[in-house]
Known about the structure:
The protein has 205 residues and is an all-alpha fold. The chain has helices at residues 11-34, 38-68, 76-103, 110-131, 139-167, 170-204.
Amino acid sequence: MKLRLFPQENAGLELLSSMAMELVHGTDIMSQILGASLDDYDDLAQQLHDVDEKASNLHFALMTQMRTSFINPLPREDLYALSRLLAEAVEKLDGAAELITLYKLTHHSKRATEQLEVINRQALLSVDAMKRLGSLEDLEEYWIEMLRLSRRAVRTHRTWISELQRDHKILTYARHRDVAAQLMDVVTDLRRLATHVGSILVKES
Length: 205
């Protein structure tokens, strides 16, 4: 085993990667909600609450690690910004599940599944990318792909809203629109995550 002078120097990146993995777990639970019966909503929503709590705890752990570590792989402000965006993305995904449960929504649009696929892909890319922030290796491709996925999500969101307006009465439309907006907010946070990675690349180039 290779010895390292500062064995905790990459702990912050591992924590960021773990937060992205919680988002992956959250998208799996959300996909189950989209196919579940109303009787299962409360249990699945609680599972997503638990994921949100885990992500928050990882965020707090990173704050502690930054304060106590002699050396960090990135400036503290960058680590904090990335961690905050990941935590907020998980929180908003949890919010989408809570809205579905509170509104008792059924007959979900296939656009919800499409958005969830984008979020899952962005989260998986971020799991690996966060670990590579120490060397900044191949992160330009990550940045570009994340932006491409976010543009795809924007187009899907527009289509989803137009279909909701066409197919539903005002109250049902408003409830499904709230869920659509919440999922779009997750994508937006992940786009901001990638943009911040891009700013780190520019600063360090």
